[in-house]
Amino acid sequence: MMNSENYAQTDEKWQALLARSTPTFAGDTAPPYGFVTSTLARLKAEKGERDMLERIGLRALFASLAILVAVVGVSIGMQIQDRMDFDPAVKSLLQADDIPIS
Question: Residue 34 and residue 75: Cα distance in Å, rounded?
């Protein structure tokens, strides 16, 4: 019984709100509240879902870009480190190049 009383109160509130706010939509004052109201509710729900998916997509995009930057940074760092690590024989040749010959 509690559910039917609750439903009746909600129904009365809804009818009162519709009567005050949109008197031009007479079909919306009786359940299921007409085509216009159901269409607007569906559009609002779709907009909420679209906004949520857009936020998730942007977060995924930024996360993937951050990972890409990190991978590029590590790769470049390893290449620079490899170029600086010479074989001892190469180091001695480079040092010998700086010796003046008379």
Answer: 62
CA 66, CA 74: separation in Å to the nearest integer? 12
How many whole angstroms separate alpha carbon 33 and alpha carbon 69? Answer: 53
Q: In the chain, pLDDT over 70 holds for what percent of residues? A: 57
State pLDDT tens for residues 56-87.
Answer: 999 999 999 999 999 999 999 888 877 766 66
Task: Say yes or no to pLDDT of 2 above 80.
Answer: no
Return d(Cα 38, Cα 25) in angstroms, integer.
Answer: 12
87: left (phi over 0), alpha (psi -120 to 50) or beta: beta
* Tokens standing for residue 67: 């990972």
Spatial CB neighbours of 34, under 8 Å, sequence gap ≥ 6: 25, 27, 28
